[in-house]
Amino acid sequence: xxxxxxxxxxxxxxxxxxxxxxxxxxxxxxxxxxxxxxxxxxxxxxxxxxxxxxxxxxxxxxxxxxxxxxxxxxxxxxxxxxxxxxxxxxxxxxxxxxxxxxxxxxx
Length: 107
What we know:
- The protein has one domain.
- Helices cover about 40% and strands about 25% of the residues.
- The chain has helices spanning about 1-25, 40-50, 55-65, and strands at about 30, 35, 65-70, 75-80, 85-90, 100.
């Protein structure tokens, strides 16, 4: 049991160090058509609207400027990864604004 716990902790540590190393080691670029927002709560709200097919509400959120849609090819820095949530925090190169988006939105 003790060896199993140590093995689990080791795997978790490797995953965390791997993601941290990846975050600082390379450039990322955005893909077209993914939602982003300055707050995680607003991103979650937008994703809920999308998953429920409420295009009218989502479009109002985008029109308000609280949520945006990614353009293809914007170079970004990976600021933070939220392990197992599918959400990352990014910052366009040369900008001071950081936003949350889906992991799939960057390559």
